[in-house]
Amino acid sequence: MNASPDRYAVIGHPVDHSKSPEIHAAFAHQTGQKLIYERLPAAPGAFKTTAAAFFADGGAGLNVTLPFKGDAAAYANRLTDRARRAGAVNTLARGDDGTLLGDNTDGIGLVRDLEHRLDIPIAGRRILILGAGGAVRGVIPVLLEYGADAVCIANRTLSKADTIARDFADLGNIQTCALTTSANGWDIVINAISAGLAGEMPNLSPAILENTHGAYDMVYADQPTPFLRWVADHGIERRCDGFGMLVEQAAESFMVWRGVRPQTAEVIAALRPGSDRQRS
Ligand code: ATR
User: Fold this and answer.
1) Which amino acid positions bind NADP(+), per UniProt (predicted)?
2) Is the shortest distance between the CB of 158 and ligand 1 below 6 Å?
């Protein structure tokens, strides 16, 4: 008798617009892995009960999205180093002994996308990050691990940037500044301000783009994001939104669960919002 396929899901609130089911279905098809991947909505405050029921019912792994990444870190039995540093988990994997490993693949997703699609190796680069929210905690340890020369966190609320810099000070050269005073000289500028999602753009000085080779927005949309439109207006040719990061972090989760690394380029091309295949 054939064993039933392993079950995975993305848990979040809301989760109905998550593209993770399509991405993992594409990975499973490409790698010949048999699995089921669904959406698992959980009400605010109900992460633990929803996840516990999923795993009690034989679930093999979860992707965790907003607002539950911190809850997932507390829920896991063991954390990878990168998840512990981030204080956030986006991947839960059930081991053979039934315990749950918590991992965070957001940072490696960003680094892979920067290196592949923006074609800028991280090693030796000076990187400016706009924003100091939960997403930034996930990516800073990996940027430094991959050899970034310096990372500067520019944030509206400077104290939040300072806290992150202090927490990660042992990992490398981390500086902070106010959004309005970020000095120039940054090879790569990464936007992690969630305001971009709502179509807004904070007031930024074009001076931050002097000497910049590439700009990356951690959010994505059907149309170029306000941040990417702004950098385009200021002459930055290498620009990339966060859709590739979403697919790359999913590929790393797939690797954690299945031990196989999918090819991401064809999945990004097929599923990117606004792509011909998605519209057809
Ligand atoms: P995420 O999980 O996406 O990182 P978050 O933890 O809520 O979300 O963090 C949101 C980030 O966007 C913060 O850095 C926030 O700045 P503050 O720390 O000063 O709140 C930033 N942000 C949100 N709206 C903004 C705006 N209108 N102008 C500037 N920064 C903004």
Assistant:
1) 81, 131-135, 155-160, 218, 242
2) no
**What is the fold of 6-104+244-271?**
Rossmann fold (3.40.50)
* pTM score: 0.93
Extract the tokens encoding 73.
């870190």
Active-site option among 9, 15, 24, 69:
69
Provide DSSP, 232-264: HHTT--EEE-THHHHHHHHHHHHHHHHS-PPP-
Q: How far apart are CA 128 and CA 17, in angstroms?
A: 30
pLDDT classification of 280: cutoffs 50, 70, 90: very low
Look up 34 and say whether it is catalytic: no
Share of the chain above pLDDT 90, in %: 81
Using CA atoms, how far residue 234 sits from 109, 136, 206, 208, 267, in Å, is 27, 24, 7, 10, 31
Q: How far is the C-alpha of 102 from the C-alpha of 45, rounded, in Å?
A: 19
Decide: 87 in ligand 1 pocket, CB within 6 A: no
Q: Which strands form 150-155's sheet, in the order they lie side by side?
A: 174-178, 150-155, 126-130, 188-191, 214-217, 238-240
The whole-angstrom separation of Cα 226 and Cα 229 is 5
pLDDT of residue 77: 98
Q: In this predicted model, which residue has the larger pLDDT, 66 or 41?
A: 41
CATH 3.40.50.720 fits 107-241, yes or no: yes
Which residue ranges does the chain devote to CATH 3.40.50.720? 107-241
Where are the domain boundaries for CATH 3.40.50.10860 in the chain? 6-104+244-271
